[in-house]
Amino acid sequence: MARGDKSKYTDKQERKADHIAEGYEKRGVSEKEAERRAWATVNKDDGGGRKEGGSGRGKRTGNPAAHKGGKSGAAASANRPAAERSASAKKAAGTRASHEHRSSH
Fold it and tell me: pTM surpassing 0.85?
């Protein structure tokens, strides 16, 4: 099978890839790159095409890519010292207060 051949993917996998690509495009990623990332995500989730003749058809997937978001960000803030987090929170509160003050006029 040639590289890039999508004949072994189910309709559901194709819809999933389209939906993912759409999300990337909304965030300003080029159409070609969005498409590439979308299929990479489907492959990560499902282990490739799920139609007959390939390996792994019908196996349930845990959709790992869908559960990945936010983990690295949370870890980064958790590793910061408490004083740094506190200073950051105070700064954010100050910014919110000043924005609130500005928008109420």
Answer: no
